[in-house]
Amino acid sequence: MATERRDRDPACETSGSHDGAYDEHLERSRTVWDRWSDWYGMSERDFEPMREAAIDRLALQPGDRVLEIGCGPGVNLERIRDDVDESGELVAVDYSPAMIANARERIDAHGWENVEVRRADATTATFDEPFDAALATLSLSVMPDIPRAVETVYRSLVPDSTFVVFDVRPFPDGPARVLNPFVRRFLRWYANWNPDGDVVASLEAVFDESEVVDTYTHGTTYAVVCEKRDAD
After folding, report:
1. In terms of Cα–Cα distance, which of 146, 139, 163, 154 is closest to 211?
2. CB-CB neighbours of 227 under 10 Å
3. Residue pair 133/58 in contact by the 8 Å Cβ criterion
4. For residue 44, what pLDDT is reported?
5. pLDDT score, position 47
6. CB atoms near residue 130 (< 10 Å)
7. Angle between helices 146-156 and 199-206 (to 10 degrees)
8. How far is it, in rounded angstroms, from Cα 50 to Cα 203?
9. Predicted local confidence at residue 155, as pLDDT
10. 28: exposed, middle or buried (C-beta count within 10 Å: 0-12, 13-18, 19+)?
């Protein structure tokens, strides 16, 4: 299914009100990720096996319609596009204009007509049609309102669909937890990580099923598979 690129800024298509802290966090995220947009290559390579494993968990099929939340410079686009083929569709969103520009360069370089990237706030984004699957890699934990972002994904999926999250966190257990104050400060500086958010708990609260299926680097990076079931 070919998708018409939207040059308008869907970030303006938000609903609801936010407090000052929310707006400050969102703007800080834009600044941070604009800054890192041209230096993402190392992160792309380091996390590639983990991202690939997360996408494997989606078990995508040709013709699927996929949502990616926080796509950054588009490091997952090619793999997802290969899985859904020309008959599928991929819609990716991010709040950083510089990241969006890099992602669109990838799309233009490959000539993908069924891949669309929008600038949007994931907590309030709306979509015209539901998705068969969704993915978020290294993105949910930096959002200003993680539960609302998760709710956005849940509403946007068809029944009996899967949402896979790959993300980072401080040490969850063990002696290394003594280092967590430093880890939190680093993540806050490096990625505008949300210290008040809990990705795993938010996923468990919203989705019908949610399970941490993979952990890496002493549990500081992890993958969660979430299922939205048919209400019947």
Report:
1. 163
2. 15
3. yes
4. 66
5. 85
6. 13
7. 40
8. 19
9. 96
10. middle
* pLDDT value at residue 9: 46
**Rounded CA separation 134/14 (Å):** 20
Q: What is the distance between the alpha carbons of residues 151 and 140, in angstroms, rounded to a whole number?
A: 12
Name the residue among 227, 1, 231, 17 with its Cα closest to residue 114: 1
Give one word for 14, left, alpha or beta, with left for phi > 0 and alpha for psi -120 to 50: beta
Under DSSP, is residue 229 helix (H, G, I), strand (E, B) or coil? Answer: coil
Q: SS3 of 7, please? A: coil
What are 72's two structure tokens?
């950054």
The pLDDT, as a whole number, for residue 33 is 63
Give the three-state DSSP class for 120: coil
Q: How far apart are CA 119 and CA 101, in angstroms?
A: 10
Residues of the chain with pLDDT under 50: 1-16
Encode 149-182: b = buried (16+ Cβ within 10 Å), e = exposed. Answer: bbbbbbebbeeebbbbbbbbbbbeeeeeeeeeee
Cα-flanking dihedrals φ and ψ of residue 158, to 5°? -75, 160
Query: Per the structure block, which two tokens stand in for 86?
Result: 């020309």
What domains lie within the chain, and their CATH numbers? 10-228 (3.40.50.150)
pTM: 0.85
CA dihedral in degrees (11, 17, 22, 24; nearest 10)?
70
Please enumerate in sequence order all residues whose Cβ is within 8 A of that of 229, keeping only pairs 6 or more positions apart, or say none. 159, 160, 208, 209
